[in-house]
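FW: tagging you since you asked about this chain on Friday. Here's the raw sequence from the shared folder, copied in full. Didn't touch anything.
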Amino acid sequence: MPEPVPAWQQPPPRSAGRPLFYVAVALLIAVLASGGFAIRGQLLGNLGGGNAASQVTPSPLLSDYERADRFLNVDLGPSLTETDQAVPALQSSCTSSLPPPCKDALMKLDKAMVDVQDAITHNQRDIPPCIGPQVDQLKSDWNGMEQGVSLAIQGYQANSRDLIIQGLQKFASIAQFLKPDVNRINAAEQTCKK
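HL: got it, structure written out here
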């Protein structure tokens, strides 16, 4: 029970804003409830597959041509450049006598080739369908070439001249397909939607 207020004090006035507050809260609840029903209806319509416009997937920000160009030049380009820079050392160091510097050149080339494989793998979903099959063929040939380099390195580690030669021959035999692979990718890129 509340304590009586002394006579010399006026009781606190009833706040005139209190009923206004309740009206505002009631109005807010009504707006939220009606908005909720409207949103619910839209969500159910979309889940039920109501209209064709809701089933259209958004178009990507880049065209297939731009995606292909980006993949080839931005995603794949740096590691291909690294490989190109490793090849001259291989050509100059790997003579018929197979000196120790050949192993170093092979290891540098192998690292660069693995970087290309990683770039293709990590950016697989960025490859547009218009160049997909051609990139897959390049990847397959590239893997075979890298296996040849890896086999030659194993030959150095096992001190096996035959294994080194076998690896280098595998690398060279598959490397002949690299230029046609690149030509097919370039031709396919020109067919991509711009």
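FW: DSSP finds seven helices and no strands in the chain.
HL: agreed, and The first helix runs from residue 17 to 47.
FW: great, closing this out.
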